[in-house]
Amino acid sequence: MLPRRILLTTGLGLAVAPVVACGRRGGGDGGSRGVDGGGGGGGGQAACRVPDALAPMSEVAGAPLSYAESGTRQSFDADPAFAALLQQWAGEWVAAAGLGALMEVSTYGAYVDKCPSWHSAGRAFDIAELVHENGTVSCRYDLWGDDPSRLRSYWRLAASLSTRFTYTLGYPYNLAHHNHLHVDNGVNGYEAPSHNAGSAAQTTVVQGVLRHVFGADVSLTGSYDDITREAVRAVQRDHGIVDRLATPAGWRAFLDAAVARS
User: Fold this and answer.
1) Three-class SS of residue 89?
2) CA 74 to CA 53: how far, in whole Å?
3) Name one Pfam family in it (predicted).
């Protein structure tokens, strides 16, 4: 578990600077509000969030960041503790994905002055594309649509992100997310997440993984119905997973099994 504020090293590409104004930097996600509380963390409309000190983030796992709209390499402001959590995730993804080192991360940004999204606290990040040494994982559903290979890679990435960030929002969420995967830790903070069967966003991740990674005949409805439940149980049996999705251990085991299925 990460504390709320941690000592940061230069390896994180961060230098703490106070926020003196609510300006934009780069792009951002306006769609992280919704029925699941991706904007509010508990459903409904949340008050605007005032960020703590933000810091420029210029790389993730050693890979430079570039703005998806222009391809220009640049830094993006983020909450330092959130950026450290993102770095932890990225290290695990690189080790598990089988695609070699991460070379570049195309993003729409982190901090954006847009309420009530967690972007306004600098605790959200949008991924358009990950360029690896031996392959690329694209989140641009708007460009490639229902391509089976792309969808498999996409949902493996979504599964990996979900091990750290309760809200991992993709193309099924709304049209605004057809060009990126959004993550924030507004719900789980710096604790290990678990699955909430009442969360349409999390259940859609489960269904996307089941359908496009494990090949189960489920639809991406966001409803944790009997078909979804039985498909999850089949995956759990096949992989020797005994913990329920509602526990951090069970959620992590299910997601890790999806990431490992290259």
Assistant:
1) helix
2) 19
3) Extensin-like_C
Each residue of 107-144: pLDDT tens digit? 999 999 988 899 999 999 999 999 999 999 999 999 99
How many whole angstroms separate alpha carbon 221 and alpha carbon 86? 28
Dist. CA 54–CA 232, nearest whole Å: 39
For residue 231, give the nearest of 151, 182, 239 by alpha carbon.
239
**Which distant-in-sequence residues (6+ apart) come within 8 Å of 258 by Cβ?**
155, 156, 159, 209, 213, 214
What DSSP string describes 4-57?
Answer: SS----GGGT---B---S----S---S---STT-TTTSSSSPPPPPPP--BEEE
Task: Tell me the C-alpha distance between 155 and 206, whole Å.
Answer: 9
* Cis peptide bond prior to 18, omega within 30° of 0: no
The model's pTM is: 0.86
Distance from the first to the final alpha carbon of the chain: 28
